[in-house]
């Protein structure tokens, strides 16, 4: 049974985990347990043992142990004795913000409800079990519905919160976080994925002390600087051993995630929309739906935790034709030409791309009216035929004649000051009254909280998509939100603008994905600035970073891989020296690193030698032969990321086929040889091993490969890389 509601206990079971809560004597919904799977009777027994917890001053109720100050709670509100970070803060019509949530009811739903206006995990019509718990304020009729859905196979529990106002009057929601997870332990490390443009999602690990650790965004987008995925784990937790909890917010705007230690040595984790710059008015009878958090737990280290996320994202977040399907191999013209191109030049690149096996040509920024640099034209989504030298449909026909698909770049959420759209509708951008406002990359952010703006952009985009055979869209977003004020909202509702902006973006994405179900959207935000589960719901791949130097990409892709499957990471072979770092890297390493992603190309192929074209054609063939393994297999990080080389490995679900890649990070001379161990194989299976195309004579057992490893002599100098293919022989 994945869900048990018995007496006062609610138990959620996945294959390897159990989550347990109970209604205590004070009628709080207490959190009891989240960890390794317990059998049902042990779970109930453990619940009873844990029924009382903590001991301090009694602020309420029958015993000190049940005080809201210390009792582990599933959810709580500001102002009534819980002094930890409280997920809910509501201001009532009388000006008070004291709220005291107690248990009302719990029911089982045999489906996962859709979260109105928000992306969320889906259950593909299969019956998944959801528990809906209702908490209610003791005095006013404010109801908080907690929804928990069990994804049994993936060891995932998703959770969201719906607030309903039945108080008879208007209230203001000042904070509605989506997750609150109290733990008996406090000896944790907190892992966040922070960075900056060109260096996204670097893993940061900090030990929890007597304080609160926070990672968050206030930029209007989840951003380059922080990612809405975090882990907290036992102190020694590594890839293969230790306890770890993950939380991924399915949301693309301002967020917060924090872990705090309490006075009594327990801890609280919370996550959700950042309450800063958030105040949402709810009239009587209205409902607020907060985004979903995807929780997972592993007692055997980060590898297993990552597999859980990769599996659930592939199977229950991605939608549409490309969810699990082979992805196109792209040639993108951005780093080949930037804004400087004609159709003739683009076609020349496409012809070379066809020779190397790319199957989709993507025309990036610069194809629309007067766009020859980044200072103008965003918002005027009309083809610049003069610049192209032909109609867009003619270029597409020529590309299609090569047997290739065609893709196009848009930046739907922004508008240049120098554009017809801005001249016609200056009130359509986010900007506070009487202020000059702030351009970013010489552009304004459109007010996506305004339905008229969403309609207008949808109209222009569909005009292009209806009239041209476009099978891929790159959806870019190149600045953060400043001057957040929407002319579509009254003065007292400006605290809703940030969230309504995100809802408007989701609305536009939903309308586009519904109207063009076969379109593949790749998200992008100045590289990987909004790489999150919210965007991945609409765009099952995301441009990982504008830093295309493979040596820097090693770190970026490493951090990204903790939550996101490699098939979501846009990765291309680019020129050497690299345009961002000027570093030279061998073609093979550029290719190997791009293969830990969607694989594609982004360089001027017309300037390559015949040898280079031949090499890239061979690389593409290799990728195609392994694309299912890379796309759907289990991904292991087989080295730490602090040493002289880094490695990763894909293993097929039946454990019979595997591919590993090792890249030398720093030159290594007169040092011990590399002996690399592998993961995920069948111990008593015999495997054939091929290193860089050279098949080793001897066969190796799975145990030997996993416990002893093999010597690798093919990498030594910085940026060398090697491939190890492992194939079962019986
Ligand atoms: C930022 C993206 O990350 C790049 O790949 C490229 O599309 C440019 N924008 C175009 O302006």
- Whole-number count of domains: 3
Percent strand: 25-35%
Q: What's the tally of helices?
A: 14
Find the CATH superfamily of the largest domain: alpha-galactosidase from lactobacil brevis
Helix content: 10-25%
What is the name of the CATH topology of the largest domain?
Beta-galactosidase, Chain A, domain 5
Provide the CATH architecture of the largest domain.
Distorted Sandwich
Beta-strand segment tally: 40
Tertiary shape: globular
Low-confidence stretches: none
Q: How far is it from the N-terminal to the C-terminal residue, by CA?
A: 37 Å
In CATH, what is the class of the largest domain? Mainly Beta
Bound molecules: (2R,3S,4R,5S)-2-(hydroxymethyl)piperidine-3,4,5-triol
In this structure, how is the largest beta sheet organized? 10 strands, antiparallel
Write the layout of secondary structure elements.
Blueprint: E1 3-6, E2 9-13, E3 17-23, E4 29-36, H1 40-49, E5 88-91, E6 101-109, E7 129-137, E8 142-151, E9 156-165, E10 171-183, E11 188-196, E12 199-207, E13 212-217, E14 229-234, E15 244-249, E16 255-261, E17 267-273, E18 280-282, E19 287-289, E20 293-298, H2 301-316, E21 330-332, H3 334-337, H4 343-356, E22 360-363, H5 385-388, H6 392-401, E23 405-410, E24 414-416, H7 420-424, E25 443-445, H8 451-467, E26 472-475, H9 497-515, E27 520-523, H10 533-538, E28 541-543, H11 550-560, E29 569-570, E30 573-574, H12 587-594, E31 600-602, H13 610-632, E32 634-637, E33 645-651, E34 657-664, E35 674-676, E36 686-691, E37 694-695, E38 700-701, H14 702-708, E39 710-712, E40 721-728
Parallel strand pairs: 21-22, 21-31, 22-23, 23-26, 26-27, 27-28, 28-29, 30-31
Antiparallel strand pairs: 1-2, 2-3, 3-4, 5-10, 6-7, 7-8, 8-9, 9-19, 9-20, 10-17, 10-18, 11-12, 11-14, 13-16, 14-15, 15-20, 16-17, 24-25, 32-33, 33-34, 34-40, 35-39, 36-37, 36-38, 36-40
Bound molecules: (2R,3S,4R,5S)-2-(hydroxymethyl)piperidine-3,4,5-triol.
């Amino acid at each position: 049974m994945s869900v048990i509601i018995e007496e006062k206990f609610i138990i959620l079971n996945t294959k390897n985990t159990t989550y347990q809560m109970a209604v205590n004597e004070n009628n709080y919904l207490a959190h009891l347990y989240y960890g390794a799977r317990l059998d049902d009777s042990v779970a109930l027994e453990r619940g009873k043992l844990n029924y009382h917890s903590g001991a301090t001053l009694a602020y309420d109720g029958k015993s000190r142990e049940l005080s809201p100050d210390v009792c582990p709670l599933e959810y709580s509100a500001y102002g009534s004795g819980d002094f930890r970070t409280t997920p809910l803060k509501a201001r009532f019509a009388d000006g008070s913000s004291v709220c005291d949530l107690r248990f009302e009811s719990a029911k089982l739903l045999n489906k996962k409800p859709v979260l109105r206006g928000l992306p969320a995990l889906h259950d593909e019509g299969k019956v998944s079990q959801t528990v809906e718990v209702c908490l209610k304020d003791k005095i006013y009729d404010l109801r908080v519905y907690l929804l928990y859905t069990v994804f049994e196979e993936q060891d995932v529990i998703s959770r969201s919160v719906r607030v309903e106002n039945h108080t008879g009057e208007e209230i203001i929601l000042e904070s509605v976080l989506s997750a609150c997870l109290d733990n008996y332990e406090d000896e944790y490390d907190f892992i966040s994925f922070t960075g900056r443009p060109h260096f996204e999602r670097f893993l940061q690990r900090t030990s929890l002390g007597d304080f609160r650790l926070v990672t968050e965004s206030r930029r209007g987008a989840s951003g380059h600087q922080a990612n809405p995925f975090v882990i907290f784990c036992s102190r020694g937790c590594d890839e293969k051993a230790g306890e770890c909890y993950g939380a991924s917010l399915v949301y693309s705007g301002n967020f917060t995630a924090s872990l705090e230690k309490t006075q009594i040595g327990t801890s609280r984790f919370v996550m959700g929309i950042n309450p800063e710059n958030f105040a949402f008015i709810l009239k009587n009878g209205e409902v607020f739906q907060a985004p979903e958090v995807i929780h997972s737990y592993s007692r055997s280290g980060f590898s297993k935790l990552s597999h859980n996320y990769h599996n659930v994202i592939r199977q229950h977040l991605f939608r549409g034709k490309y969810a699990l399907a082979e992805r196109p191999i792209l040639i993108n013209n951005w780093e080949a030409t930037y804004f400087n191109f004609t159709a003739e030049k683009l076609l020349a690149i496409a012809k070379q791309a066809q020779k190397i096996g790319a199957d989709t040509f993507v025309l990036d920024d610069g194809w629309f009216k007067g766009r020859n640099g980044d200072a103008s034209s965003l918002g005027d989504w009309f083809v610049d035929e003069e610049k192209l030298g032909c109609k867009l449909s003619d270029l597409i026909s020529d590309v299609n004649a090569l047997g290739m698909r065609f893709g196009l770049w848009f930046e739907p959420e922004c508008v240049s000051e120098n554009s017809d759209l801005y001249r016609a509708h200056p009130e359509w951008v986010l900007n506070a009254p009487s202020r000059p406002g702030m351009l970013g990359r010489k552009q304004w952010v459109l007010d996506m909280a305004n339905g008229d703006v969403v309609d207008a952009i949808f109209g222009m985009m569909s005009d292009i998509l209806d009239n041209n055979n476009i099978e891929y869209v790159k959806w870019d977003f190149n600045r953060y939100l400043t001057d957040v004020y929407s002319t579509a909202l009254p003065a007292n509702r400006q605290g809703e603008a940030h969230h309504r902006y995100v809802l408007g973006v989701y609305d536009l994405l939903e309308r586009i994905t519904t109207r063009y179900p076969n379109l593949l959207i790749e998200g992008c935000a100045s590289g990987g600035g909004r790489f999150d589960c919210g965007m991945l719901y609409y765009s099952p791949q995301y441009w990982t970073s504008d830093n295309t130097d493979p040596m820097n990409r090693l770190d970026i892709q490493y951090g990204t891989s903790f939550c996101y499957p490699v098939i979501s990471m846009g990765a291309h072979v680019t020129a050497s020296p690299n345009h961002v770092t000027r570093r030279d890297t061998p073609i093979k390493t550029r290719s190997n690193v791009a293969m830990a992603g969607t694989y594609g190309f982004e360089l001027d192929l017309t300037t390559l030698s015949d040898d280079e074209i031949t090499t890239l054609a061979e690389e593409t063939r290799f990728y195609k032969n392994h694309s299912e393994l890379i796309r759907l297999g289990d991904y292991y990080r087989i080295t730490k990321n602090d040493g002289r080389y880094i490695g990763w490995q894909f293993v097929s679900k039946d454990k019979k086929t595997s591919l590993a890649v090792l890249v030398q990070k720093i030159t290594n001379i007169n040092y011990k040889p590399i002996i690399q161990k592998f993961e995920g194989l069948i111990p008593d299976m015999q495997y054939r091993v091929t290193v860089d195309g050279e098949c080793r004579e001897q066969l190796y057992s799975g145990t030997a490969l996993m416990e002893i490893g093999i010597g690798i002599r093919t990498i030594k100098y910085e940026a060398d890389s090697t491939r190890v293919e492992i194939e079962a022989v019986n």
